[in-house]
Amino acid sequence: MELTDRKRKILNAIIRNYLETGEPVGSRTISRYTDLNLSSATIRNEMSDLEEMGYIVQPHTSAGRIPSDKGYRLYVNALVEEKTSQVSAMNTLMIYKTNRMEEILKQVVRLLATRTNYTTMISAPSYKGNKVKFIQLSRLNERQLLTVVVIEGNIIKNHIIDLDESINEEQVLKLNLLLNTRLNGLTLADINLGLISNIKEEAGIHVQVVNDVLDTIAEVIRAETDENMEIYTSGANNIFRYPELADKSRASQLITALEEKSLLADFIKDTEADETDPGTGIKVYIGEEGPVESMKDCSVVTATYDLGDGLQGTIGIIGPKRMDYEKVMHNLNTVKESLNELFRTKKVTDEVTDDEVMPSGPGSQT
Amino acid sequence: MELTDRKRKILNAIIRNYLETGEPVGSRTISRYTDLNLSSATIRNEMSDLEEMGYIVQPHTSAGRIPSDKGYRLYVNALVEEKTSQVSAMNTLMIYKTNRMEEILKQVVRLLATRTNYTTMISAPSYKGNKVKFIQLSRLNERQLLTVVVIEGNIIKNHIIDLDESINEEQVLKLNLLLNTRLNGLTLADINLGLISNIKEEAGIHVQVVNDVLDTIAEVIRAETDENMEIYTSGANNIFRYPELADKSRASQLITALEEKSLLADFIKDTEADETDPGTGIKVYIGEEGPVESMKDCSVVTATYDLGDGLQGTIGIIGPKRMDYEKVMHNLNTVKESLNELFRTKKVTDEVTDDEVMPSGPGSQT
DNA sequence: GTTAGCACTCGATGTATTGGAGTGCTAACA
DNA sequence: TGTTAGCACTCCAATACATCGAGTGCTAAC
Description:
2 copies of one chain form a homodimer.
Chain A: H1 5-21, H2 27-33, H3 40-53, E1 56-57, E2 66-67, H4 69-85, H5 101-116, E3 119-123, E4 126-127, E5 132-141, E6 144-151, E7 155-162, H6 169-183, H7 193-203, H8 207-225, E8 231-234, H9 243-246, H10 248-259, H11 261-273, E9 282-286, E10 298-306, E11 311-320, H12 325-344
Helix pairs in contact in A: 2-3, 5-12
The structure holds a DNA duplex.
């Protein structure tokens, strides 16, 4: 059967109405809603066809119809086409400037949640290059060394090494020089066994330190590429606004998914893997289209943002299938713009970083 | 009216029964449950008294009774007394060793949640001393400096400074020396205006660097004492196990509270402020006793843990008022033991730290 | 002081009944 | 041939009503 223009209009009307009300929509409603001037009976025939084609679904006999995943997909595709051709209304977000990346992300994800009334997530930007840029060893006291490793993209990692034997300033200086000359500009892949044993030889007795520095480098690089992606979420409570997500079992599953960031990471990895999208960089997962089983009652809309220098991450909005896709996509665009804006004007104070507590065991009082 | 021994026993029986079933308990149940050999009628009379005294409450006429906050309080107090006199069964937790404090905390909070079936939280240990221990400036390139500040307790913070004017190695060395000799061993309070202008004078043209280092110090110290406490939670989905917390509005409020770490921080601050507890370090907030309005249907049990060196934090368990206080307190003790254990045996690899991404604006490609 | 007995309350549960929104189908119409 | 009016039918949601049972308070007897 062919999807005539009229059928298309009716389908759109059904979807739009359902987005608003969340209730199944009947033929009579459409008959008045649209400007097609058709009787409800005609609409009924068309709806019957649409159902047969799989665009809409009847929750039970003698209820109205609701869109199927396939129906939503058609609708969203149309939206996307429309969107890309039109210039997105610039409307930057007020992001409070701060030096800590973490703060910015939390702010953004929160803003987005309150603006859209959906649940939101954002992944910290990760850097693809991963070349070692700078290594600094500092002598804290005769048995402790502070290691700081900076890799391209200005990701900083530090570590305190407890030494088995004491070390003096001169030795530290030498090691610094050695490590920097040998390792700068290399990626983890470049640092092979031959190189390592080579360096160890030159380092003489300070093998332990070299080992540790290499571990630290390995850690910083791994942390940025791997599984344990940093993800922030906000507005989890918004799921209770939508009855279709708010019942006990569904809500519980969703809350669990939000807590298990690894599930969210699946969406982000999927988004990042797929570079074939039209250009807006916005991707929509409707229901079962997504990679996460327990979120099959939701739609997820994601977008990648780019801070320049190859530093990029993903923003996502999680809501019911009947979410306001148009609004959501618009908001995602706004956020992308705003983040760009922020980092373009941030030239002056363009550092953001920091670190964490580290407890020192009872053995290390000096 | 006096709380006779018999009334006490009946009250206990009511509470214990209610903890198990979650349903109002009637006189007949108690009449059989206890070994008092009293008829339901007698129990009824006693229950009537207990209600008048405010220990129990009737949800509606002709339902059984449920404990009031006051009733729980009596019960918990008795529990605590009993607990402290008895040696807590040592039963350490399997904590997977890792170098990152964050990982350990996440592990602990998660373990605790799955063990207890309640929602859990843990605050990162914070250090009370806050003396500057070591400052390291490194020249990344002629316009960028890396600042690393270590304070006692080995909390590390770093920062990249973009300079208005170029700087050479020699100048960096001088600044390093200057800052270390002047600031080491001082707390934030010690660093007054006089000292600052003094240092700035000595620093000559590099006022900007001095300012930034001071900012960084201020930030690291503030971050550890202040509001923005790091708190991890787990097992949010567990609230759906308890019907009295699982209805839409309550669940939504709770989820919000868990997301708004600031509310949880209120509990932690309260716990830490109160050093007058019996010695177990365990504190129980029943319903409205807690500082957070939106959690008045919950009980929260907290305990402080101590990693030595004055580094301490708080663990908390959030559940319905009818939570299994005994189990919860026992588990908290176990976790305390385990954390102690972990850091006692961690002497060799006693560092834990790390850091974060920092994007570099498009202006800083070199 | 304790207990048996009884009337009473009130939520929870189950069962009809009804109303309305919606459908599918058929026959008539343009 | 496409459109529409009409009608029988379905099914959910809401309402009302009856019933059950757990629990209470009170009184009178032990």
